[in-house]
Amino acid sequence: MEFIWNDGGRAASGFVGLTGDCVTRSIAIATGTSYRDVYRELGEVSNKTPRNGVCTHHSEAYLKQLRWQYTPGRGQRFLADSLPKGVVVVHLEMPTRRRHGHFCTVIDHVIHDTWNPSEEPDYQIVGYWTCAAAASETPLPCPAPGSSQNAEQVTTQKEFDKILHRLRALDSTANNHASTEGEKRNALRMMQNLMLRHNLSREDIRDDDNVESVCFTRRACPVNGRRACAWEKWLAAYLVTEIFPMTGWYYGVKGNRTLFWFYGPVEDVQNCITLFRELLLTIATAAQLQYGGHSRGSGASYAEGYVRGLPRHNSPDEDDDTQPSEVVSETALVHARTMAVQDAARKWLRLECGVSIVTTYGSGRNQHDPDAADRGKRHGAKHDVTAENGRKRLGFS
């Protein structure tokens, strides 16, 4: 199914940090209501913050309150043909993974979410909600009849940034040893009032070098064959290490294909997928032209050498002591932020997608052609990975 990245207005409403907000996000997208209003109203229905998810019976009660009609899914696969056209809120579950359900909005058979659940083969439709007022052929949802939209309640990003700035300033005062007891009590009281008024928690006002405000996604790139070639795995590892260090990857099998999953900041993942596909085609074509294939024998050795020969930019040079201290310090700060984003991306993947990364190691191939590998390494070293436009030219020798 087609997929459009959509956070339901979470970032625009000023929310930061990691959260399992699929219910809030899907309802905000489907009804056209502001994310902040849906977040607040779901909190009132469930009598707790929706930050870490909402129980199914609470989400059902809320959607019924908005006059949406429920249709059982009867365990159908998550396919476009299983859903009606128009705006649909879908409840998905995996029979093999208990306590891992997901809500998403599908508009005219196009998924609007922060990741594409249709790429998971095990998802089944528990049920879905539709509303006559939201049924249309347009990808722009309209508010449900029972939803409450008050222009005075919609907070702009600029206004909410001011609120976050004020809360962080008060938090600094409350934790400053130089502040008097009266100043600390006053700061804490004002913080409590602001957080209650705007439905915030302390996690929402954390500011870890703006890492908390990064928007994440996950996308799959399928390749033929149930067993991924070693050079394909090395290529994925090369991209997330050298070119897009804030992204991560893993792989799995779906039918007769291997899926390479990339996750991390939205723009980085999109660019990483594009470059991965381009390099896959380039290397496989070069191996095919010279050795008749890329998955075994000399062709696989050539492809492995090609990946190993690709230029390295981000690998540390332990022998370089000539860099000024300012450059070293800046590099350390960039590395620290990269590590923070990587850690946040793994937490997001576990919280939002129910996926925990496990590192495995495999054995090498028995048939290795050193000459083909050396030739591939020479060709890979000539590849300009950083070129943005234009076709890559391969100079064979």
UniProtKB/TrEMBL annotation:
Highest rank taxon of the organism: Bacteria
Stretches with biased composition (Basic and acidic residues): 366-375, 382-391
Pfam families: DUF2786 (PF10979), DUF7168 (PF23771)
Region (Disordered): 307-327, 360-397
Domain DUF7168: 225-312
Residue span, DUF2786 domain: 162-202
Protein name according to UniProt: DUF2786 domain-containing protein
Organism: Novipirellula caenicola
